[in-house]
Design a protein that fits this description.
It catalyses: N(6)-[(R)-dihydrolipoyl]-L-lysyl-[protein] + succinyl-CoA = N(6)-[(R)-S(8)-succinyldihydrolipoyl]-L-lysyl-[protein] + CoA. The protein is of the alpha+beta class. It is built from eleven helices and 27 strands.
């Protein structure tokens, strides 16, 4: 017996719903023949037979919710794949009346797809198809980049790119318009009309393009390419008429054959073969910086007993202070007054009260640092780097801002020196500049603490006996629980919160 189980469905996807079984108990199945369709909140996926044989048992029915790895059914192996039934080819359906061969004038919008959890926008990295160019269904139009992934956006239907709403370098939000696709007019033109019956099939061939049906499933498209069938020859049974692999196999069993050689070029222009996934992959060696980042982050996870605690902070006082003095500050010091200097100073203040967060483990010893070298995470095209502001406790606001601004510029230009990224005792990372609401930053080993800043957003909070809107930010402290206790971590965050909400405390060292 061979088990049929729910496959891995993608990052963070743990369950799916059974949309439809294509086979019933007792049916003979071939290896890799689709057995059922699963639906998640992101994709629909077919589950193929892991072996040839007979579907002896179905343990999960249509409509049930199943977890990854759950048992769906069992196949009793017969050692022989299912043989096609010797059925006569069905009679051809009568052609629809009227002249339906003209392409539809309707357009189809292509929009930015969901890009992953918490990702709300992306950058247009590359335009693959320009306005006026013809395009096949599932052929990529543009390539988008986020801080996590690069993804190609395919055409939902074949046709011609009527217009492009974006250009390279644009930032687009999820759901934003990318392009519109018009009727291609490339629906299979009738052959040189050897017989009236063949010419009458032209309206039928143009129907899928005008109806806006879903493109065939990837496995179905591959099966059609291998067998030489076109989408017009297969009746789809999936959602909204989508053609599934089982539909292709059923068409082959019923005697449907590939179109004649004269029709092949038109078929290929509508649905080009995509080939194997391996042929569409690009293998690029990791840069030395990326390898170093990956190793250090994984080492930190494997070594430290890492835990994260959260708090939120009202940014009203700092924003008001910054608004009041930013012009005169910039005029005198030739640098803008940002938020990082406030947080760096607040962290130094908190580290002095909670020295465990400024310590590290060396063998069986705890090493407490009586100096404050503040690491500041900076994102670059090549990866994340953490230059260190040395002796941050001895610097003023202007010196901190100048140092961080200089680090940021030289980091993006690749001009940081190695010694400028060593010796940090604590790190601050600001995911808020990318729009992050909340995160759990990874320790910068061998440090025992890292503070994560996030975006500022207006939220209702209780102020006295009233509810008011305040510019609030979530703070996250990830720490090594081998050194730092929960009480110390919470105390540290509370001290940072107090200093930011009442900046005068920094001046008075309170």
């Amino acid at each position: 017996m061979t088990d049929i189980r729910v496959p891995t469905l993608g990052e963070s996807v743990t369950e799916a719903t059974i949309a439809k079984w294509f086979k019933a108990e007792g049916d003979t199945v071939a290896a890799d023949e689709p057995l059922l369709e699963l639906e998640t909140d992101k994709v629909s996926v077919e589950v193929p037979a892991p072996a040839a044989g007979t579907l002896s048992e179905i343990t999960a029915k249509d409509g049930e919710t199943v977890e990854v790895g759950a048992l769906l059914g069992q196949i009793s192996e017969s050692g022989a794949a299912a043989k096609p039934k010797a059925e006569a080819a069905p009679a051809e359906k009568p052609a629809p009346s009227g002249n339906g061969a003209a392409p539809s004038a309707a357009t189809t919008e292509v929009r930015v797809p969901t890009l992953g959890e918490s990702v709300t926008e992306a950058t247009v990295a590359r335009i693959i198809k320009n306005a006026g160019e013809s395009i096949g269904a599932d052929e990529p139009i543009v390539e988008l980049e986020t801080d996590k992934v690069s993804v190609e956006v395919p055409a939902p239907v074949g046709g011609t790119i009527a217009s492009l709403a974006v250009k390279e370098g644009d930032t687009v939000e999820v759901g934003g318009l990318i392009a519109t696709i018009g009727g291609s007019g490339a629906a299979a033109a009738p052959a040189a009309a050897p017989a009236p019956a063949k010419a009458a099939e032209a309206p039928k061939a143009s129907a899928p393009a005008a109806s806006g049906d879903m493109p065939p499933a990837p496995s179905a498209k591959k099966a059609m390419a291998e067998s030489g069938l076109s989408a017009d020859q297969v009746e789809g049974t999936g959602k909204r008429g989508q053609i599934l692999k089982g539909d292709v196999l059923k068409a082959l069993e019923s005697g449907v054959t590939a179109p004649s050689a004269s029709a092949a070029p038109a078929q290929q222009s509508r649905a080009p073969s995509t080939g194997d996934d391996a042929e569409r992959e690009e293998r690029v060696p990791m840069t030395r910086l990326r390898r170093t980042i990956a190793k250090r982050l994984k080492d930190a996870q494997n070594t430290a007993a890492m835990l994260t605690t959260f708090n939120d902070v009202d940014m009203s006082a700092v924003m008001e202070l910054r608004k009041q003095y930013k012009d005169v500050f910039e005029k005198k010091h030739k640098v803008k007054l940002g938020f990082m200097a406030f947080f760096a100073k607040a962290c130094v203040h908190a580290l002095k009260e909670v020295p465990a967060v400024n310590a590290e483990i060396d063998g069986n010893d705890l090493v407490y640092k009586n100096y404050y070298h503040m690491g500041v995470a900076v994102g670059t095209d090549k990866g994340l780097v953490v230059p260190v502001v040395k002796n941050c406790d001895q610097l003023g606001f202007a010196d901190i801002e100048k140092t961080i601004a200089d680090f940021g510029k030289r980091a993006r230009d690749g001009q940081l020196k190695l010694d400028e990224m060593q010796g940090g005792t604590f790190t601050i990372t600001n995911g808020g500049i990318y729009g992050s609401l909340m995160s759990t930053p990874i320790l910068n080993a061998p440090q025992s603490g890292i503070l994560g800043m996030h975006r500022i957003e207006q939220r209702p909070v209780a102020v006295g006996n009233e509810i008011k809107l305040r510019p609030m930010m979530y703070l996250a402290l990830s720490y090594d629980h081998r050194i730092v206790d929960g009480k110390e971590a919470v105390t540290f965050l509370v001290r940072v919160k107090e200093a930011i909400e009442d900046p005068q405390r920094l001046l008075l060292d309170l």
